[in-house]
């Protein structure tokens, strides 16, 4: 993970595949020959103490103070470029890694809240110093403040310049490649990064004439939409998207009969109450799915009525929705809500659809249209792909007749594609239109992506060392954290050395997640019985996160209910990331309470979770014909009358595990992929 020098938002480096693709783009003759539409904006020419146009000063170059990973030196020296009579000096950058260095080092140039929105490329000249040595690739990063985050936590957009030699060479890097940044205003830093796994122990470079330029050919962007031609033509024939809504709703398997259920109708007995919730939730998941294709619609929104003319059905879905929907069907069978024949028929229909969808190197795209089955995304997501694999693994262990079909889909996805051997982390995903990887990697252990890491290791497509490369806590000098970690000492488990550590709140010790939300902490428990398999690490952490979620909401926020996790905003303004800030390294803000968080807590503290679910049903107009709606604001009582397939699935699967003795967890643990990583889970003790 990158820990120099500005506490970047997350960590990553480029895969060899991306480096090759990027090199092709950097050297594309059409881009090099294009006439700039606006004058270049020099960041520094190293002939003057400051750039007269950008305001960047030579004194703005800095390195991380007291960085033990390596020593860095830089100075201006004479360096005549053969292509230019104006260039007489350049910046000489020299470094040396410590023998045991694991973390990146580099230099950064402070930028004066720079606006780069008029430009589409960064241009610079660079050559390696053959006398000292150098790597043929460097990572460049722009950084800017992250809205709503502590000052030290910066958003990053990066790219690798590849093909550096001991001769001066000009590189033009498309800003769109630096896909971590969307708004190119307010830039605060430009950094050059060296990584010990792909750089010699010591090396040096010459750098000259850094400038922002506009070529008029910005190249593809991650924001380029995917227009599904068949769906668009269908909507146009009907008169547009709004006119298509009745036809989309007609494809659904059902529709609610009433907006709200009187809480007095709900059973007084706790088990009967949970069984009623499971039945209603399953009816909704089955109803709000495409009848022909067997895919759940991502979102169906109501307002203050179930009138179809005032509702909106989002006929799109993503692969996590599909993976969990497969598990939903098994859960419904185990709960006695459908019989085995209906379960097989439903599963077969969804698998038929999966086998028809467009894929890329065996992976499914992140979003599809449920009506036309066209992909609506350029993105291949690691964590979403993993949840689909998890669903297929549950199916092949619970429905033998479908095992072979599931196995074919599981085997064709090689998670080694997402593994970055330099960072030893899993990247967020890959944009096929760039083509290139996403900016960030999953660098923190205690997030929902840990399940995907286990699957990748269990398949033999990532090494076991990856598990220990994910951070338990960040270094203490990452001063943007919600608190400084305690006990952050070097630990050795199964021959792997890494830093441990934990946070503390009111005497409770825990390893933090990123945002402090319930789904980061507990979503993997839908299939993985961490309290049983990892009682001294992940299992204990799940219980503590649940305790702090409850106590923080009740004692600190003054809420009568608890469960903070990403959900619909009750004011109708989209989707929000909510959490208990002190549970996360960054920590999301408090806000809406969502029933899926309370349901997940059944897997860590069932008694308190049942009390909380009852409170949600009794205090607020939150329980509808298809079970709980998505979220409520406990301060105003305002409800988001939405059904989200993801969140409803989490509720149903948690209920099935609670009511049927961990049935889904047992099917998942029986899979040979997970059998291989079970020893990994139980070996670590977070708090020793």
Describe the structure.
- By secondary structure, the chain is of the alpha+beta class.
- The protein folds into two domains: 16-213, Jelly Rolls (Sandwich), CATH 2.60.120.430; 229-682, Glycosyltransferase.
- The strands form twelve sheets. Strands 1, 3, 4, 6, 9 and 11 form a six-stranded antiparallel sheet that branches. A five-stranded antiparallel sheet has the order 2-5-10-7-8. A three-stranded antiparallel sheet has the order 13-12-34.
- InterPro entries: DUF3131 (IPR021478), Galactose-bd-like_sf (IPR008979), Glycoamylase-like_cons_dom (IPR019282).
- It comes from Candidatus Competibacter phosphatis.
- This is DUF3131 domain-containing protein.
- Residues 277-412 form the DUF3131 domain.
Name its key features:
688 residues; alpha+beta; Jelly Rolls; Glycosyltransferase; 2 domains; 20 helices; 30% helix; disordered N terminus; Galactose-bd-like_sf; DUF3131
> Which spans of ≥5 residues are poorly predicted at pLDDT below 50?
1-34
Question: What percentage of residues falls in helices of 4 or more residues?
Answer: 25-40%
**Level-1 CATH class name of the largest domain:** Mainly Alpha
* Proportion of residues in β-strands: 15-25%
Cα distance spanning the termini? 24 Å
CATH architecture of the largest domain: Alpha/alpha barrel
Please, what is the CATH homologous superfamily of the largest domain?
A: Glycoside hydrolase 144 (GH144)
Please tally the β strands and state the result.
Answer: 34
CATH topology type of the largest domain? Glycosyltransferase
Largest sheet: 6 strands, antiparallel
Given the structure, what is the number of helices? 20
Structural class from helices and strands? alpha+beta
Radius of gyration: 26 Å
Count of separate structural domains: 2
Mean pLDDT: 91
What form results from the Cα inertia axes?
Answer: globular
């Amino acid at each position: 993970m990158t820990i120099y020098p500005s506490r970047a938002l997350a960590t990553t480096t480029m895969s060899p595949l991306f480096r090759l693709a990027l090199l092709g783009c950097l050297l594309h003759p059409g881009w090099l020959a294009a006439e700039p539409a606006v004058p270049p904006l020099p960041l520094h020419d190293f002939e003057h103490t400051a750039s007269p146009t950008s305001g960047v000063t030579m004194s703005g170059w800095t390195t991380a103070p007291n960085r033990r990973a390596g020593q860095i030196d830089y100075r201006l020296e004479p360096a005549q470029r053969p292509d230019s009579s104006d260039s007489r000096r350049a910046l000489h950058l020299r470094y040396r890694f410590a023998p045991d260095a694991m973390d990146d080092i580099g230099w950064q140039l402070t930028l004066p809240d720079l606006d780069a929105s008029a430009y589409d490329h960064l241009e610079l000249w660079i050559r390696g110093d053959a006398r000292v040595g150098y790597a043929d690739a460097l990572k460049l990063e722009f950084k800017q403040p992250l809205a709503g985050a502590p000052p030290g936590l910066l958003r990053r957009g990066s790219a690798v310049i590849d093909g550096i030699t001991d001769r001066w060479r000009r590189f033009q890097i498309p800003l769109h490649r630096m896909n971590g940044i969307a708004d190119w205003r307010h830039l605060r830093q430009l950094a050059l990064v060296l990584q010990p796994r792909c750089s010699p122990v010591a090396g040096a470079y010459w750098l000259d004439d850094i400038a922002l330029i506009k070529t008029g050919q910005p190249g593809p962007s991650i924001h380029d939409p995917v227009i599904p031609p068949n769906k668009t033509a269908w909507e146009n024939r009907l008169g547009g998207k709004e006119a298509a809504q009745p036809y989309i709703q007609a494809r659904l398997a059902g529709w609610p009969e009433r907006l709200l259920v009187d809480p007095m109708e709900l059973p007084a007995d706790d088990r009967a109450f949970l069984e009623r919730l499971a039945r209603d939730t399953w009816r909704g998941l089955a109803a709000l799915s495409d009848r022909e294709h067997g895919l759940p619609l991502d979102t169906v929104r109501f307002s203050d009525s179930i009138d179809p003319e005032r509702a909106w059905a989002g006929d799109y879905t993503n692969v996590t929705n599909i993976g969990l929907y497969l598990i939903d069907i098994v859960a419904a069978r185990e709960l006695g809500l459908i019989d085995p024949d209906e379960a097989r028929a439903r599963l077969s229909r969804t698998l038929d659809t999966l086998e028809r969808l467009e894929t890329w190197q065996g992976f499914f795209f992140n979003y599809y249209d449920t009506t036309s089955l066209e992909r609506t995304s350029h993105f291949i997501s690691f964590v979403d792909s993993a949840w689909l694999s998890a669903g297929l693994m549950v199916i092949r262990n619970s429905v033998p007749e479908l095992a072979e079909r599931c196995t074919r889909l599981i085997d064709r996805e090689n998670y080694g594609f997402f593994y970055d051997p330099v960072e030893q982390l899993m990247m967020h995903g890959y944009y096929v239109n760039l083509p290139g990887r996403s900016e960030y990697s999953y660098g923190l252990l205690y997030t929902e992506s840990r399940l995907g890491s286990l699957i990748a290791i269990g398949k033999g497509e990532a090494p076991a060392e990856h598990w220990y490369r994910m951070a338990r806590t960040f270094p203490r000098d990452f001063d943007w954290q919600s608190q400084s970690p305690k006990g952050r000492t070097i630990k050795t488990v199964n021959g792997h050395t890494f830093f441990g550590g934990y946070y503390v709140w009111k005497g409770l010790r825990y390893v933090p997640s990123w945002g402090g939300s319930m789904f980061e902490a507990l979503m993997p428990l839908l299939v993985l019985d961490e309290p049983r398999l990892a009682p001294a690490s992940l299992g204990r952490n799940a219980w503590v996160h649940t305790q702090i979620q409850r106590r923080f909401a009740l004692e600190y926020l003054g809420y009568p209910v608890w469960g903070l996790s990403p959900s619909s905003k009750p004011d109708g303004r989209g989707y929000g990331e909510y959490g208990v800030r002190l549970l996360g390294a960054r920590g999301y803000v408090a806000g809406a309470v969502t029933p899926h968080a309370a349901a997940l807590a059944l897997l860590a503290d069932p008694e308190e979770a049942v009390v909380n679910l009852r409170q949600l049903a009794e205090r607020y107009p939150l329980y509808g014909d298809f079970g709980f709606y998505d979220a409520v604001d406990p301060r105003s009582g305002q409800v988001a009358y939405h059904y989200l397939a993801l969140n409803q699935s989490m509720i149903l699967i948690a209920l099935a595990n609670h009511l049927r003795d961990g049935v889904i967890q047992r099917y998942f643990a029986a899979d040979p992929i997970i059998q291989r990583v079970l020893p990994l889970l139980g070996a670590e003790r977070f708090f020793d």
